[in-house]
C-alpha cells in the first residue's frame, strides 16, 4: 500500500519549491567541497544546468524503454524514471554521470518489476560495437550496488498505471459501457507517459496522478469524468475532502503541464560543461572506489574524450552509443 510505503515516507515531498531547494543544496554541497579544497568553482554546473542535463537523460531513458526489444512493460519505465528522479535529488550529475545511472536504473527496474531479461539481452538494445557492449555490461553490473545505496535500498515504486486500470474497471461496472470507457484509455495513458517526465512521482500519490490522467482524457473525448470523482470516489467524504481532492488533481495537472521541450542549445552547453567537469570532480571507477581526475595527463585525456562525445551526441541523441561510459 502506498500510504505505508517508503515511497510516501521518504520520497514524497510537499511542493515543487521543496524539490528545488533540495536540488540547489545538492549543487551547493559540490561547490563547498571544491572551495574547501582550493579548486576553481567557476566551471561547475549551476543548479539549472544540472536540471537540464537530468531532463535530457530522462528523455533518453524514456526513448530507450520505448524502443526496447522485447517490448518493455510500462511499469519498468515508471520505476526506472522514479529511480532516476530520486538519485538526482540528493546527488549531483558531477558525481555520478547520468548516462551510467540511466542505464543502471532501467536494468534495476527490469529486475524489480520482474521483466525477465538477461544483461546480454539488455545491452543488445544498445547500438554499439561488441566491445562497447561488453564494457556496458561491466559498467551496469558494477554500478548496481552503488545505485542501491543512492536509493537507500528503497526499490518499491507505486506508479499510477495500476490505479488508472482500477478506475477504468470501476467506471465500466458502475456508470458506463465498456466501449465508452475504453475511449478514455489512449489519452489517459499518454498523459501518464508525460507525467513520468515530470516531478509528479515525487509530489503526489499515484491514485491522484491517475485521476488527473482520467480528467485530462475526459476533456479530450468529451466525457464528464468530474461527476465520477464526485459521485463514486468522494461520496463517503465531506465537501472539504472533495474540494481537497479536486485541488490536488489540479496541482497534478499544473506539474505535468510544466513538461516542455528542452532548448537543444542550452542542453548541449550544459552537457559540454559536464564533460569538462570530468577533469575536476571526484568520479567512481568500476570497483566503486574513488579517484580524482585532472591531477595527471590521464584525467585531461578523459576530459577531452568526454567533451568530444558530448559534441557528437547531438547527432544520435546520446542514447545508444557508449563511448563516453568510463
From TrEMBL:
Keyword Nucleus annotated: no
Pfam families linked: Cyclin_C_2 (PF16899), Cyclin_N (PF00134)
GO cellular component: a single term: transcription factor TFIIK complex
InterPro entries to which the protein is assigned, alphabetical: Cyclin-like_dom, Cyclin-like_sf, Cyclin/Ssn8, Cyclin_C_2, Cyclin_N, CyclinH/Ccl1
Gene3D superfamilies cross-referenced by the UniProt entry: Cyclin-like (1.10.472.10)
SMART domains hit by this protein: CYCLIN
Example GO BP: DNA-templated transcription
Region spans: Disordered: 283-326
GO molecular function: cyclin-dependent protein serine/threonine kinase regulator activity
The entry's keywords: Cell cycle, Cyclin
Keyword Cell membrane among UniProt keywords: no
Segments traversing the membrane: none
Function: Regulates CDK7, the catalytic subunit of the CDK-activating kinase (CAK) enzymatic complex. CAK activates the cyclin-associated kinases CDK1, CDK2, CDK4 and CDK6 by threonine phosphorylation. CAK complexed to the core-TFIIH basal transcription factor activates RNA polymerase II by serine phosphorylation of the repetitive C-terminal domain (CTD) of its large subunit (POLR2A), allowing its escape from the promoter and elongation of the transcripts. Involved in cell cycle control and in RNA transcription by RNA polymerase II. Its expression and activity are constant throughout the cell cycle.
Family affiliation: Belongs to the cyclin family. Cyclin C subfamily.
Known partners and oligomeric status: Associates primarily with CDK7 and MAT1 to form the CAK complex. CAK can further associate with the core-TFIIH to form the TFIIH basal transcription factor.
Descriptive protein name: Cyclin-H
Organism: Branchiostoma lanceolatum (Common lancelet)
Taxonomy of the source species: Eukaryota, Metazoa, Chordata, Cephalochordata, Leptocardii
Gene assigned in the entry: CCNH
Amino acid at each position: 500500500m502506498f500510504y505505508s510505503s517508503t515511497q510516501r515516507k521518504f520520497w514524497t515531498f510537499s511542493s515543487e519549491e521543496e524539490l528545488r531547494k533540495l536540488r540547489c543544496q545538492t549543487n551547493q554541497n559540490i561547490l563547498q567541497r571544491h572551495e574547501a579544497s582550493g579548486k576553481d568553482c567557476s566551471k561547475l554546473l549551476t543548479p539549472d544546468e544540472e536540471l537540464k542535463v537530468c531532463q535530457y537523460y530522462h528523455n533518453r531513458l524514456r526513448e530507450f524503454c520505448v524502443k526496447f526489444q522485447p517490448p518493455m512493460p510500462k511499469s519498468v519505465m515508471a520505476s526506472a524514471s522514479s529511480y532516476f528522479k530520486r538519485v538526482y535529488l540528493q546527488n549531483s550529475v558531477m558525481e555520478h554521470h547520468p548516462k551510467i545511472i540511466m542505464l543502471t536504473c532501467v536494468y534495476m527496474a527490469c529486475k524489480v518489476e520482474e521483466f525477465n531479461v538477461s544483461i546480454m539481452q539488455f545491452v543488445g538494445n544498445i547500438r554499439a560495437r561488441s566491445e562497447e557492449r561488453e564494457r556496458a555490461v561491466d559498467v551496469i553490473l558494477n554500478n548496481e550496488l552503488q545505485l542501491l545505496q543512492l536509493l537507500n535500498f528503497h526499490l518499491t515504486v507505486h506508479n499510477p498505471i495500476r490505479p488508472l486500470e482500477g478506475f477504468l474497471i470501476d467506471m465500466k461496472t458502475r456508470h458506463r459501457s465498456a466501449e465508452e470507457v475504453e475511449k478514455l484509455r489512449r489519452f489517459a495513458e499518454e498523459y501518464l507517459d508525460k507525467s513520468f517526465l515530470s516531478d509528479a512521482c515525487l509530489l503526489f500519490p499515484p491514485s491522484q496522478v491517475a485521476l488527473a490522467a482520467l480528467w485530462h482524457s475526459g476533456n479530450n473525448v468529451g466525457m464528464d469524468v468530474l461527476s465520477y470523482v464526485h459521485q463514486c470516489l468522494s461520496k463517503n467524504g465531506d465537501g472539504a475532502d472533495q474540494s481537497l481532492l479536486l485541488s490536488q488533481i489540479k496541482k497534478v495537472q499544473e506539474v505535468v503541464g510544466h513538461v516542455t521541450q528542452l532548448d537543444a542549445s542550452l542542453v548541449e552547453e550544459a552537457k559540454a560543461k559536464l564533460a569538462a567537469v570530468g577533469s575536476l570532480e571526484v568520479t567512481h571507477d568500476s570497483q566503486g572506489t574513488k579517484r580524482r581526475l585532472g591531477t595527471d595527463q590521464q584525467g585531461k585525456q578523459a576530459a577531452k574524450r568526454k567533451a568530444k562525445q558530448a559534441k557528437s551526441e547531438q547527432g544520435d541523441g546520446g542514447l545508444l552509443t557508449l563511448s563516453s561510459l568510463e
